[in-house]
Specification:
Blueprint: E1 5-14, H1 20-32, H2 41-61, E2 66-74, E3 78-85, H3 108-115, E4 118-123, E5 130-137
Antiparallel strand pairs: 1-2, 2-3, 3-5, 4-5
C-alpha cells in the first residue's frame, strides 16, 4: 500500500451539535471539487456516513473546545478523514460497542467499522487530544496506470 497522502484541507469548528451537518458537508464538498472521479458513488456515500458519525461522536464525547477535521487523498487510491477533539473528560479512547437493536445511540463506531476500509483511534500523548480516523478505498488503478 502506498503511503502518499495529499492534504485537501483542514476545517475547525466549535463543539456544537448544530455544526455536524456543515462539517460533514465540508468533507463532501472538498471531495466533489477534486478533479476526476476518485471514488465510486457507493464509496462517497460511505465517506459521508462515516464522517457524520465520527464528527458527531467528537461533538458529543470530545471534551470542551474545538474540533478539527482533516481530509487527505491517499495514493492507493483512498480517502482518509481524521477528526481531532480535545479529549473526553474520562481520558478514554473511543471504542466500538455492541448495542441492543432497540438502542437509540452507541452505534457510531459500529457503522464506521462496517463501512470504512480501515479505521482507528488514539490519544495524542502530548496534548491528550483524541483522534479518530477512517479510510475508504477507491477502485484500484487499472494495470499499467502508475
Amino acid at each position: 500500500m502506498s503511503h502518499d497522502r495529499i492534504e485537501l484541507g483542514v476545517f475547525t469548528f466549535a463543539q456544537d451539535r448544530g455544526a455536524v451537518p456543515g462539517a460533514r458537508r465540508w468533507v463532501m464538498d472538498r471531495l466533489a471539487n477534486r478533479d476526476g472521479q476518485m471514488l465510486t458513488a457507493d464509496a462517497m456515500d460511505n465517506v459521508e456516513l462515516c464522517a457524520g458519525e465520527v464528527i458527531a461522536n467528537a461533538v458529543v464525547h470530545g471534551g470542551d473546545g474545538k474540533i478539527t477535521v482533516t481530509l487527505y487523498v491517499l495514493g492507493t487510491p483512498a480517502v482518509r478523514v481524521e477528526v481531532r477533539d480535545t479529549g473526553s473528560q474520562e481520558g478514554r479512547t473511543p471504542v466500538q460497542r455492541d448495542v441492543p437493536l432497540t438502542a437509540t445511540n452507541g452505534r457510531g463506531l459500529g457503522i464506521v467499522g462496517a463501512l470504512a476500509s480501515r479505521w482507528g483511534r488514539h490519544i495524542e500523548p502530548a496534548t491528550g487530544h483524541t483522534v479518530v480516523w477512517f479510510e475508504v478505498d477507491g477502485p484500484p488503478d487499472p494495470p499499467g496506470a502508475r
